[in-house]
Amino acid sequence: MSPTDIDEPVSGHRLPLLYNLVYCSRAAEGVDDADVNRIIESARRCNPVFGITGLLVFGGGIFFQWLEGPREHVVQLMSKLKTDPRHESMVSLSESEEVRERLFPDWDMERVTPDDIRDVLEDALGHAEDPRNAVVLRLLLEQLDSGQLRQLSVA
Ligand SMILES: Cc1cc2nc3c(=O)[nH]c(=O)nc-3n(C[C@H](O)[C@H](O)[C@H](O)COP(=O)(O)O)c2cc1C
Predict the structure, then answer these.
(1) Ramachandran quadrant class, 89 (left: phi over 0; alpha: psi -120 to 50; beta: rest)
(2) Residues in Cβ contact with 140 at an 8 Å cutoff, skipping those fewer than 6 apart
(3) Which of 55, 98, 123, 151 satisfies CB 3.0 to 4.6 Å to 60 for a cystine?
(4) Is residue 138 assigned to a domain?
(5) Do 36 and 111 meet the contact criterion of CB atoms below 8 Å apart?
(6) Per the confidence metrics, is the pTM higher than 0.90?
(7) Ligand 1 pocket mutation, candidates 78, 84, 104, criterion most atoms within 8 A of CB
């Protein structure tokens, strides 16, 4: 099922009202690549049902996740994530709700390597027609440069 098949609150325009949440967290001790692949598998099973798309980066013991979808469903997922023992110390990096295009419409949940996160964000920025998307992406790229996400690159 594609995320656009489910009912999303739609404005007068054809773009959906999207809730976007970006956070970092620390992986729990012992969490490895296989665990992350299992997380991706369950995300790919569940996220399409709830119209959620995004990406997950894992590197240097740190998770970075971009979630976008209907507010109610993203908030529900966040309350599950907060109690998931596979990670801790979640820090919200950005949060917004706007009528706008999805940045990752085809990604139910894509695993991106730390080496590729800059390219993914820059590519999304290059394609972002919506200035509000561009603002969030520039902020994340700044965070990447300023070292706030540095641990991601120590894969
Ligand atoms: C870093 C991280 C990211 C996750 N991302 C998602 C996700 O995008 N979608 C999802 O359904 N579950 C995700 N999970 C797994 C959920 O926490 C939860 O285990 C899963 O949704 C199954 O929940 P349930 O057993 O209550 O159905 C993630 C877990 C972690 C640790």
Answers:
(1) left
(2) 22, 93, 94, 121, 149
(3) 151
(4) no
(5) yes
(6) no
(7) 84
What's the number of CA atoms in the CB half-sphere (13 Å) around residue 100?
20
Classify residue 31: in a domain, yes or no.
Answer: yes
| Contact (CB, 8 A) for 92 and 98 | no
CB 24 near ligand 1, within 6 Å:
no
For ligand 1, whether the C-beta of 120 sits within 6 Å is no
Whether residue 145 is contained in a domain is answered as no
* CB of 53 sitting under 6 A from ligand 1: no
Tell me, what CATH number does 23's domain have? 3.30.70.100
Among 24, 42, 58, 86, say which to mutate for ligand 1: greatest number of ligand atoms within 8 Å of CB: 42
Question: Domain for residue 125, yes or no?
Answer: no
Which residue range is the domain that position 105 belongs to?
3-7+14-111
- Counting the structural domains of the chain, the total is 1
Ligand 1 probe mutation, 21, 40, 46, 76, most atoms within 8 A of CB: 46
- CB of 42 within 6 A of ligand 1: the answer is yes
